[in-house]
Amino acid sequence: MPTINFEKELNAEQLKVIHEGDGPCLVLAGAGSGKTRTIVYRMAYLLEKGIPPEQILLLTFTNKAAREMLTRVEELTGVNPRRLCGGTFHSAANRFLREFAGLLCLPSEASGVGGGFARGFGILDEEDAKSLIKLAVKEGGFDTGAKKFPSPAIIKSVSSFALNSQILLEDALEMKQPAFYDLAEDIKRIIGIYERKKRESNMMDFDDLLFLLVKLLRENPVVRASLSGRFAYILIDEYQDTNPLQAEMIRLLSPKSGNILVVGDDAQSIYSFRGAAIANILNFPKVYSGAKVFRLEINYRSTPEILNLANDIISKNTAQFPKNLKSVKDSFVKPFMHQAGTGADEARFVVDKIAALRREGVPAKSIAVLFRATHHSQPVELELGRRGIQFEYRGGTRFFERSHIKDALAYLRAFANPSDETAWQRILLMHGGIGPASAQKIFIEIRELQSFEHIANHNFGFALGEKIKFGWNKLIGTIKNLIPHKEKNPSELIRALANSDYAVYLATEYENSKDRLEDIGQLAAFAANYPTLEDFLSEIALYDGFTGRGQTGDAIVLSTIHQAKGLEWDTVFIINLADMAFPNQRALFEDGGVEEERRLFYVAATRAEKKLFLTFPLIGPQGDYVQPSMFLSELDDDLLESAAKKYQENSEYIDEDVPFSDTPPEKRPQEKDWRKRSFLRSVDEL
DNA sequence: TGTAGAATCGTTTTT
DNA sequence: CGATTCTACA
Predict the structure, then answer these.
(1) What is the pTM for the complete model shown?
(2) What is the pLDDT of residues A227-237, one digit of tens each?
(3) What distance in Å separates the CA atoms of residue A273 and residue A276, rounded to the nearest whole number?
(4) CA pair distance A437, A133, nearest whole angstrom
(5) Fewest Cβ atoms nearer than 10 Å: which of A285, A401, A480, A667?
(6) Do residues A586 and A418 touch, judged by C-beta distance below 8 A?
(7) Cβ distance A258 to A23 under 8 Å?
(8) Residue A224 CB closer than 7 angstroms to strand C?
């Protein structure tokens, strides 16, 4: 094992955490203060001291972050990262439940399905969960048409919020959806049906992973002793974004030794919509008595100019730990603010600057464009595409959530578990002639059969109409093609599907079917790493790192601010800093909403190392005039540079950018036009 | 009654 | 684009 020179690699603040990090510890780490580095070196330190890797648990916000950290630990110590336990709360819970889910004691209901979950349970993603709730609403026979009735999406998000925040559904409704407060009883009944359906299908959703583990830890002392005895040290990253349910999970898992070290920055808490509670980090010293508090306040990332602006942004918030971030970098330039005409003008400014930076030799991958909501990137995407500049988009539909990938996975899921209702629903509906009503009838019969050979030869207890029969026979044809491959590697099953009627279906359904088929090829290649269907399916439900095509490694990054958390770039553009867009209009109605939006702005600004651009349009997408973001007007003007200021200071200065478009707002191309253009562009690309 | 196809709508952030 | 709603047809 190589010896590490901790004194040389770390500063005094960080070193203190490394040496004194036993027992409960709270590390308040400002943006860019080497938080990841500290965790990595702390783990290396523990391993050097002789702690077996199996006894260290690392919990992070994304699986990608965990992998990166474990890789760095490996580079430092030579310890195989597979021996360390690391991942998100959800993936850790998943791992533990694979061992113990059978011991759950769940109430047995009318259906007679009681007890626990079988070990090979599947995982529903958000969309699956919503469609299952949709079926539950139907089954419950609610009067959804007469008056306003909550959509499956609303039912899911409210109940999820209640569970993650550990509050009553009624309270969650009052906070999030007061219009449906009166329907609390109906919603509870729907959730009840949904719970039953999940158990009948042996499926868990994301929330179940956390909640059922917590339930098991609370109720079963043997399981709790086994799991909490397993780890001598627990380290948690991004603690400011944990929610009460996760906090409870940690409390129940925490080892007797009390060695639990959490790292976070209350100024970067941006997930309250998911139940994240700053109270977790604020109350840590109370929950874990004798907790030591450390502070990391030296910022290694940004220039003083950027940091001054960031500090000014966050100083407008009241609910926070006082902090004093110091920059150690040399002075450079002030952040630049740019006012544009339309979104297209704004995009042109951004792309002009990007092109100039590229000419100066700045690598593409050290430039990022950040925005509040996914669709805000449209104009910049268009402009980059027009100029032939490569970019990598973060935050669109995830690979595993693309509809054709989900189609393929539905077949795999049905093979892995013939009573998987959402999977069958999906498979049945993509066959012409079969609609929601017949799909349900068919599913009720075939769910009992449990074997694909039986399903393929099944005679229905009711008459199939001509059209339905046609669709069903097609489906049977596909399944028969797949049966010979089902015992093999999941990759083969996917390839077989790509060579079946499904390819014909894709071709008739989508213009870009070739590309979608290629995606399925990618999926097959990816699946080759997994020996069994079950391994493969459970892993990908929680996997976040795989985006399929378009990973060039050297491209401009377009990303939502949420997805940019923890990352850094030489140059950062924060676009669309306009009223109603950022801060997001809807966030303003929530308690503490403005402060959370401001933290989001803070996170965005602190991603930049050397150059930071803040841009906004004056003309909205409908051709209406929009105000700049309140976050811009509240800033100390001295901290910013702008074209207008440069002009004032130096009359020689010529602004090469056109701040206003010369087309009057009324004559602007209508929204529909640019939608079409964006569609054409994406077809061109393929 | 159930389905297909057309028209219309909208979009915060995510494990 | 995707999700949802409306409309015409079997």
Answers:
(1) 0.85
(2) 999 999 999 99
(3) 7
(4) 16
(5) A667
(6) no
(7) yes
(8) no
